[in-house]
Amino acid sequence: MKIRIVRFAGPVLLALVPMSASMAEGPGSGTAADTNDAATFEALRGVDVRMAGIAYRLTTANAALCRRIAPTPGWVIHSLGQYDPKLRDVARRVFGFDLPIAVEGVVPGAPAATAGVTANDSIVSVDGKAVATTAPADAATSNARDAALAIVAAAPADRALTVVLDRGGARRTVTIPASPGCKSNFEILLGDKMEASADGAIVQVGVRYFEKYDDDTLAVVVAHELAHNILNHRARLDAAKVSRGLFAEIGRNGRLFRRSEDDADLLGMYLIRNAGYDPQRAVAFWRDHGGDIDGGLFRSRTHRSSGARAKRIADEIARIPADAPTPYIPPILATRDEPLE
């Protein structure tokens, strides 16, 4: 019998990824299938850390462009309760989980890494506030993980974080240097679709992007979604009473969605430039890969053609002043309070 990974991001079930039959039989059999199960979880960790690395670079480099900032240690936190109960023994073997909240991975060179935080450290408290210590519920849920993230986000962004960690019952306290960044969560969508989205608080990107593209190219996609959050597009579209679903592409709805996508394209280019990526990567992505993208975010009537998007971005790059500082505050940022009409 085959089982599948069930992992939650936010309150929504994201996806199912096939696993080997040994997971139905419990851990510790020492079979080759056990090794494959562990490799699957390690691959999941690798993707999460890639996302975290891109997000860390974009958010810290562009903190000056964001009204909402938060501590950005450069780590990935997860909870045992995010995983289906049938998979939790495997999750413990791979991810440690001496306590319900743990560090899945750390971005190399980020403040968490320099402070000595390592993958599989369990988290006891952040700035004196305890994170979840009770056993996870019978059903998979991200509630405990989300509560831990909220504790981190509520801490002053300009001050160091004091974190108590647990490893095999041995506790230690580390001080993570201050590292302000744009306040946003970042998550991987598991599944087969090429999809990406932003809702004002979270950026979600499908795992298939990580299979197809290198990190410099992925930064274009992540920056586009982060730009939506910085420009308050979800709230502004809601205030404009746009219709979603079947009517999103029609008339005024389609026009306003297209404007938000146009603006996110341009600000996204500036975000990657400020973070040290080549802004021409945005031009190349839409010119070379735009036609490969399917579904949701890239619906034809709410988005320009991929060629037109590439040209608009190239034209915007040509307008950047030769002596533009880093970070550069682009004119498009001034529109974030304007009603979408």
Can you offer a commentary on this structure?
There is one protein chain. By secondary structure, the chain is α+β, with helices and mostly antiparallel strands. Helices cover 38% and strands 19% of the residues. It has ten helices and 13 strands. The strands form five sheets. Strands 7-6-8-9 form a four-stranded antiparallel sheet. It has a three-stranded mixed sheet with strand order 11-13-12. Strands 1-2 form a two-stranded antiparallel sheet. β6 and β7 form a beta hairpin. α8 packs across α10. The radius of gyration is 21 Å and the shape is globular. 41% of the residues are buried.
Structural class: alpha+beta
Major sheet strand order: 7-6-8-9
C-alpha termini separation: 54 Å
What is the N-to-C succession of helices and strands? Answer: EEHEEHEHEEHEEEEEEHHHHHH
Using only CA atoms, what is the Rg? 21 Å
Classify the helix fraction into a percent range.
Answer: 25-40%
Quaternary structure type: single chain
Average residue-wise pLDDT: 87
Number of strands: 13
Q: Could you tell me the strand content as a percent range?
A: 15-25%
Biggest pleated-sheet summary: 4 strands, antiparallel
Task: Note the total helix count.
Answer: 10
Note poorly predicted spans: 1-6, 9-29, 294-299
Q: Which term fits the overall shape?
A: globular
